């Protein structure tokens, strides 16, 4: 059987400067117009001159912002298509950020200010102050637009319930701030929090997406391995969110964690095609397919092999570096994984995570080399 | 009888909205390092004023330009590069793991914070440094080659206390021997308090109390009061303000809890946060700091 790996992104891309400035109400410079012109031309975005005209016509008013968003989504789709990916989305161009996107669309969350994630990166952290709920699904229009502007398969990333809980303060279920609270009471509060967000926020949105035609739901759980003793809550969040939802493919993305604690709990994920994980961040940049050459992959792939399930979304691009992974390095990472798993059929190929922290020139080069390296790996495996 | 009581806020303090914006702009090439430094200075002065207002005797600078607990030391070490993004415990924050080539050695100490009056500094424990480097170099080496000259530098510049943050040990108690070897390699130039953020200190305390430490920092949001030995033969840093919660503590409840600690007969008590206040946004941190001051005052009045 001939091996053919599916290549795809994970989620977010940086927003173009013209999109950022338009939404911030800042004046656009010639450099912003040139960026729109250059990428529109390079990516062969049809009618992109209309965007340039819109941006050049003066300040972008509120009625035009939706149009700017549409253009950003079209550019992102075109960028991903041009790199040769099999599965694409819109780079989450319409979303503020994966956590805030859900918190601001759901009921029950209130913002509590900016908290540092690392270096000079911060995120707006909210507190749950009331029963979580949803007035209406928040990703359907986004999905319909993306699906209507590409011929490739579409995969929709959705922030998972566990991550929403872990990244929020709890001012509703638990008794935060109470000195000497028991471990059991805190644990029960977390379980109810996960269950309710999954059932009342994530599930109705996911159901609406599938009703609109979406075939692939990717639940993003970057917090999944944060607390080793809560792997069962991660599984609970996934299973409750997607219970009864008839999507063709369901998968989970996790990154920047020690994955050891996820097993055996992840074996209980209902109909989960694969775990898309970050590996390249912790790998060497040397070529080779030995354990020594591939330190970022060795340990975790052993877990996949030992446990036999699920499939692996193999992260082969370090998304926190401008280093352009040569195609041969991507090839070797895939070949190593194929050998380590003993079954190349369990592997699909992606970056470690969303590429939002890299500029589009870097993204284009990285993803293009990823696709090229994937073809090299297939060639090597298929003889 | 209630032992001598203090309140202070070691560790990294959150950046104000203005400083957050400035650092983001710096990353995007929209401002200069000098403009960010000026903004850091404004935040630092505001934090000093807040501590003075709260009645703190030992002042901190908030480590506002520290990118993580390890970075300033790593950047001043030979043979150390801070690179892989690594999750900090079970939080949604990350530090740059340390890649070591050869023996790390501190080229120059982290500068002395410019603070009015008595002050304290915060550093990673030798075991924390070893863990941040993935165990490539023993805690004893980090202590002798990196932390010892740093402690000496701050002690000679007037530090009244140095808090050694040790986030990993409560999750891996097998590291106690390595921590002990590291602490033995540190100079006795300044009182050292080992703080254990976000972890149950109970099982570690019997052994920690035998180590050359002036005091121990206990997270009382993760450690039961009953887990502490009686008497408690050291200075007790009581992590009573929960930096992982947005709820601002009630000063009277905190004071009541701390009053109970007096029965342990420690050599002194400090009230503080159970970890770096940077886990909450700056306006919340400011209110939590105020509550610490209020609790301290309530206890002093009750005494």
Compute the average pLDDT of chain B.
Answer: 95
The oligomerization state is: heterodimer
Q: What topology, given as strand order, has the largest sheet of chain B?
A: 1-9-8-7-6-5-4
Largest sheet of chain A: 6 strands, parallel
Output the radius of gyration of chain A.
21 Å
Structural class of chain B: alpha/beta
- The secondary structure category of chain A is alpha/beta
Average predicted local confidence, pLDDT of chain A: 94
Shape of chain B: globular
Strand content of chain A: 15-25%
Number of helical runs of chain A? 12
| Cα end-to-end separation of chain B | 8 Å
State the helical fraction of chain A: 40-55%
How many individual helices of chain B? 9
Low-confidence stretches of chain A: none
Helical fraction of chain B equals 25-40%
Element order of chain A: H for helix, E for strand: HHHHEHEEHEEHEHEHEEHEHEH
Question: Brief overview, please?
Answer:
Chain A is α/β, with parallel strands linked by helices and 383 residues long. Helices cover 43% and strands 16% of the residues of chain A.
What does the model show?
The complex is a heterodimer of chains A (383) and B (303). Chain A is of the alpha/beta class and 383 residues long. Chain A has 12 helices and 11 strands. Chain A has helices spanning 17-24, 30-42, 48-56, 62-82, 98-105, 140-148, 161-166, 183-211, 231-242, 295-307, 327-341, 360-382, and strands at residues 87-88, 106-118, 121-134, 153-154, 156-159, 169-170, 216-220, 249-254, 274-277, 311-315, 347-350. Chain A starts with 16 loop residues before the first helix and ends with a helix. Chain B is α/β, with parallel strands linked by helices and 303 residues long. Helix content of chain B is 36%, strand content 21%. Chain B is built from 9 helices and 9 strands. In chain B, the strands form 2 sheets. Chain B has a 7-stranded parallel beta sheet with strand order 1-9-8-7-6-5-4. A two-stranded antiparallel ribbon of chain B has the order 2-3. In chain B, helix 8 links the parallel strand 8 and strand 9. Chain B is globular. The A-B interface holds A 112-120, 122-123, 125, 127, 166-167, 169-171, 176-177, 179-181, 223, 226-228, 256-258, 281-282, 320 and B 14-15, 17, 20, 23-24, 26-27, 67-68, 84-87, 90-96, 220-221, 224-225, 240, 242, 244-250, 253-254, 257, 278-284.
């Amino acid at each position: 059987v001939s091996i053919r790996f599916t290549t795809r992104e994970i989620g977010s891309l940086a927003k173009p400067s013209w999109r950022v400035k338009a939404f911030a109400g800042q004046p656009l410079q010639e450099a912003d117009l040139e960026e729109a012109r250059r990428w529109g031309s390079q990516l062969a975005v049809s009618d992109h001159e209309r965007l340039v005209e819109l941006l050049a016509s003066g300040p972008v008013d509120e009625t035009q912002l939706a149009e700017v968003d549409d253009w950003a989504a079209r550019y992102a789709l075109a960028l991903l298509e041009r790199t040769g990916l099999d599965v694409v989305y819109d780079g989450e161009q319409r979303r503020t950020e994966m956590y805030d996107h859900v918190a601001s669309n759901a009921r029950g969350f209130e913002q509590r200010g900016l908290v540092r994630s690392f270096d000079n990166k911060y995120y707006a952290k909210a507190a749950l102050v009331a029963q979580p709920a949803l007035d209406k699904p928040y990703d359907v229009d986004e999905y319909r637009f993306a699906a209507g502007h590409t011929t490739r398969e579409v995969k929709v990333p959705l922030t998972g319930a566990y991550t929403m809980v872990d990244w929020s303060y709890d001012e509703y279920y638990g008794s935060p701030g109470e000195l000497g609270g028991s471990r059991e009471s805190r644990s029960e509060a977390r379980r109810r929090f996960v269950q309710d967000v999954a059932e009342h926020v994530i599930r109705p949105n996911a159901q609406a997406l599938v009703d609109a035609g979406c075939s692939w739901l990717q639940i993003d759980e970057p917090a999944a391995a944060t607390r080793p003793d809560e792997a069962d809550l991660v599984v609970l969040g996934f299973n409750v969110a997607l219970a009864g939802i008839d999507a063709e493919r369901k998968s989970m993305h996790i990154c920047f964690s020690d994955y050891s604690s996820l097993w055996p709990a992840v074996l209980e994920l209902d109909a989960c095609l694969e775990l898309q994980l970050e590996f390249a961040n912790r790998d060497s940049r040397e070529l080779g397919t030995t354990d020594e050459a591939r330190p970022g992959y060795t340990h975790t792939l052993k877990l996949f092999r030992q446990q036999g399930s699920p499939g692996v979304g193999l992260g082969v691009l370090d998304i926190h570096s401008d280093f352009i992974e040569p195609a041969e390095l991507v090839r070797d990472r895939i070949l190593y994984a194929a050998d380590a798993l003993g079954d190349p059929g369990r592997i699909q190929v992606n970056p470690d995570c969303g590429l939002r922290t890299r500029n589009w020139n870097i993204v284009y080069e990285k993803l293009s080399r990823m696709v090229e390296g994937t073809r090299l790996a297939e060639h090597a495996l298929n003889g | 009888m209630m032992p001598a009581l203090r309140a202070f806020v070691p560790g990294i303090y959150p950046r104000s909205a203005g400083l957050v914006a400035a650092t983001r702009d710096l990353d995007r090439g929209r401002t200069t390092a000098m403009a960010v430094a000026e903004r850091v200075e404004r935040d630092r002065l505001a934090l000093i004023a807040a501590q003075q207002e709260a009645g703190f005797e030992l002042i901190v600078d908030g480590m506002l330009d520290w990118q993580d607990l390890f970075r300033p030391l790593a950047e001043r070490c030979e043979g150390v590069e801070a690179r892989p993004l690594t999750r900090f415990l079970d939080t949604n924050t990350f530090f740059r793991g340390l890649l070591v080539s050869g023996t790390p050695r501190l080229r120059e100490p982290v500068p002395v914070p410019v603070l009015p009056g008595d002050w304290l500094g915060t550093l990673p424990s030798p075991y924390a440094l070893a863990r941040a480097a993935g165990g490539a170099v023993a805690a004893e080496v980090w202590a002798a080659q990196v932390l010892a000259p740093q402690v000496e530098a701050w002690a000679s510049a007037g530090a009244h206390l140095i808090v050694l943050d040790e986030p990993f040990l409560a999750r891996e108690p097998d590291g106690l021997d390595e921590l002990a070897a590291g602490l033995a390699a540190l100079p006795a130039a300044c009182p050292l308090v080992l703080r254990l953020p976000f972890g149950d200190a109970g099982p570690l305390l019997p052994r920690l109390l035998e180590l050359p430490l002036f005091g121990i920092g206990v997270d009382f949001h993760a450690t039961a009061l009953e887990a502490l030995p009686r008497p408690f033969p050291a200075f007790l840093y009581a992590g009573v303000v929960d930096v992982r919660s947005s709820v601002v503590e009630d000063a009277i409840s905190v004071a009541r809890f701390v009053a109970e600690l007096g029965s342990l007969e420690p050599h002194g008590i400090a009230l503080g946060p159970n970890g770096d206040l940077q886990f909450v946004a700056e306006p919340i941190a400011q209110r939590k700091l105020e509550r610490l001051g209020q609790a301290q005052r309530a206890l002093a009045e009750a005494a």
